[in-house]
Amino acid sequence: MEKKHKSFINLSIACSIIFLGLTGCQFNLPRGNTPTASHAFPKPPTPNPEPMAEIFFAVTVPAKIQPGETLVISILDEVTGLALNPSNHVMQMGDSTHYYIALPFAVNSIVKYRYLRKGDNTIIEDMYDDQLIRYRLYYVGGPGEVMDTVASWADSLFSSETGRITGKVENSEDGSGLPDILISAGGNQTLSDSNGEFSLEGLVAGTHNLVTYSLDGRYQPFQQGATIIAGKRTPVEIKMNPAPMVNVVFTVIVPDNTVPTAPLRLAGNIIQLGNSFGDLNAGFSSIAENMPVLSPMLDGRYTLSLMLPAGTDIRYKYTLGDGFWNAEHEANGDFVIRELIVPSSGGAVQDYVDTWQAGPSAPILFEVTAPANTSPTDIVSIQFNPYGWTEPIQMWPLGNNRWVYQLFSPFNLVNSFEYRYCRNVQCDDAYDSAKIGNSKGRSVSTSVAQQDLTDTIISWNWFSTNNSGSPQQYNVQQKDNGFLVGVELESYYSPTWMPWMPLAFQDIQEMGANLVVVSPTWTFQKEFPLVFGPLPGKDALGFDVSKTINQARAVNLNVALFPEGQFPQPVEDWWVTSPKDSAWWDAWFARYRAFAIYYADLAMENKVQMLVIGGDWLEPALPGGVLADGSNSNLPLDAETRWSRIIAEIRQHYDGQIYWAIPFPEGLASAPGVINELDGIYIQWYAPITTLDQPSTADMQVEAEGLLDTQVWPLQKTFHKPLIISVAYPSITGTAKACIPNGENGCAAWNSLNQPNPGNTSMEINLKAQEEAYLAVLNAINIRDWITGFISRGYYPPAELQDGSASIHGKSTTNLLSYWYPRFLGNIK
């Protein structure tokens, strides 16, 4: 047995970086039926149970529930998925609208729960805006009680009067504001800004349990009651205690049929263990690639050492996939969810995985051969669809473009399902081209006999060549010291992007760039009352932004932050339909101020080179603002003064260079006077440089020179500021016209073809057209020394794609810039 373990371990060490996609490891998987085998080690002793406390839940519902229904409190498992492994408890009725139950929980644990009506259908409670309640929070400090009120149900309209809670979360030791703290009351959730301030809207009148929760556990939870009066604001001040970091070593014994070269991960309920705190595909909250990987030990066990905050309630499980697929199970098939209240002194945790399987069905082996042109840095992923497409999972390399994944579970819940392949877990974009126009994948059903499915991917969607040809020779003029060349990342965000950022930055650095512009977002979640803030899973939180900055710096790239707003509909439509009365504008400027200060603090904390504010999404909020329909935006008369105050505050938080972004050409007329208070201008260039279907590069260059000299140069002379040109041209025929037809005799936005799920896919992809438009602008800039930088916009980080988007990643334009950038900087003569 010892010899067997050592041979497995040597191979595991050799393949220890397969999750980075940097090596191909060859190994053999067991064939035939592989039931859960006996373990090589005895089961470790059962740890002493955590002390328990009973919590009394009492809830008021808005109306008598229907005959045949019961009221249920649902205790949620965020590691597996909020809807996938709940523990439901029927409540006792006090009278027609009041119910109660008492349940035991570990002391110092955090309970995530919500209320349901269970009958022929399951009805989840929702909020004032008809959004389902994700979960409520309760902190178990000891025996206690909580009084809740269900505001509304998903099958009924909300009709109650509401109030709100506003407040500030501070570090109890130094009084500093704490950002990115989750605040929950009445099922409503929000995150604090960089000053620790927050607002919770739409709470029904009554007393609510208010909980503040640190997503990484670095601050101990805070809990208190908050009384809401209809139409009023309830102010609160909250102080959270820092939690000391301690070392915890996890060691686990796994079943003998564990695939030895597969990454064994620790899935958990905090940021460090892969939880995004957002609603991802099919009700998932976690991403496998963001979970830490355990290391094999010489004796066949696996181990992981983590610094964790003392006192934190850690819910976790071991997995060969994610929290749902290939996770550990009890012998009876139930999902395992472990709980650890991190001891104040840290320590060692010894665990034992009973089985990876659930149900009588045998494992299914998926083997696939990828196209020969698949990038050596790409990972092939597999995505399953049992009831909706779940989050993709990385496959394991066999070498020679062959990949494999062995699926063990949960076959007690899944009988028949679909699956499909993609690159770098980007299954909405970089997928098997055989599935273009068909959302369905290949089909498979479970069986008591093991199945070995062998597939071949003929080609990848939007990926046909590596575009490695040599560009022509050009007479590039070396620019002065301080000239900036680089890329601006696409502002869309997915937690699945994070593992691929280092490779993207390496690509950007090899292009000769010296700057990457990171474009994090906040989301406009509701127009009235205005809710504008970070939405977990959709917007990069401060943790991710800081990590991204550090990854860029690791390859010697300077970094600029360019925060933007994200909208639930086309931005022009959003501005037209928003209220825009004086009270709304007051709220808008207050939220924009919080947004700007949040990123100014992040920029200062991470010492980024530049902060870019402004941009095309802000046009109606600038002095003289006009909406897309031509009407006035009803901006307050003192708007310019408000902007000046915001910029002055940004200066107090960030001492680096601040640039103002102006969309060109449409934004020139509304260029605000506050540019005088800033350090530079960032021109967002999506300008028509031809009216012809097949223009020559020389003709486009002449047109670009004319635009620079007649429109941009006067702007530079007016403000006497350094000026950067940031260019976006989609990879489509006619791109130099700067008009993507929208089917209504108008033009769609330049980023309407960006991933994921681009619109107007009928446009003809033309990589050469993008390259020629870029060349025309580069030639125009080449002889104009008053321009201090050139940036390519819309870069899509996680995968090379030859699609119609403005991203240059994997396109011939990358080769063009690889020629120009180092010569602009004098690194190549």
Tell me what the structure shows:
This protein is an alpha/beta fold. Among the domains are: 165-242, Immunoglobulin-like (Sandwich), CATH 2.60.40.1120; 484-824, Glycosidases (TIM Barrel, Alpha-Beta Barrel), CATH 3.20.20. The chain contains nine helices and 45 strands. Strands 33-34-37-39-40-41-42-45 form an eight-stranded parallel beta barrel, surrounded by four helices. Strands 2, 3, 6, 7, 8 and 10 form a six-stranded antiparallel sheet that branches. A hairpin with a 2-residue loop joins strand 4 and strand 5 (98-106). The radius of gyration is 28 Å and the shape is globular. Mean pLDDT is 92; it is low at 1-26 and 30-37.
How is the secondary structure organized here?
Elements: H1 2-14, E1 52-60, E2 70-75, E3 87-90, E4 92-95, E5 98-106, E6 110-118, E7 122-126, E8 136-139, E9 144-149, E10 152-153, E11 162-171, E12 181-185, E13 188-191, E14 197-204, E15 206-214, E16 222-228, E17 233-240, E18 245-253, E19 265-268, E20 295-296, E21 302-309, E22 313-319, E23 338-341, E24 347-352, E25 364-369, E26 380-385, E27 393-394, E28 396-399, E29 402-407, E30 416-423, E31 442-445, E32 451-456, E33 484-489, H2 501-510, E34 515-518, E35 521-526, E36 531-533, H3 542-553, E37 558-561, E38 564-566, H4 571-577, H5 582-605, E39 610-614, H6 639-653, E40 657-664, E41 680-685, H7 697-719, E42 723-727, E43 740-741, E44 747-748, H8 767-782, E45 789-795, H9 812-824
Parallel strand pairs: 1-9, 11-17, 18-24, 25-32, 33-34, 33-45, 34-37, 35-38, 37-39, 39-40, 40-41, 41-42, 42-45
Antiparallel strand pairs: 1-5, 2-3, 2-6, 4-5, 6-7, 6-8, 7-10, 11-14, 12-13, 12-15, 15-16, 18-21, 19-22, 20-21, 22-23, 25-29, 26-27, 26-30, 28-29, 30-31, 35-36, 43-44
Helix pairs in contact: 5-6, 7-8, 8-9
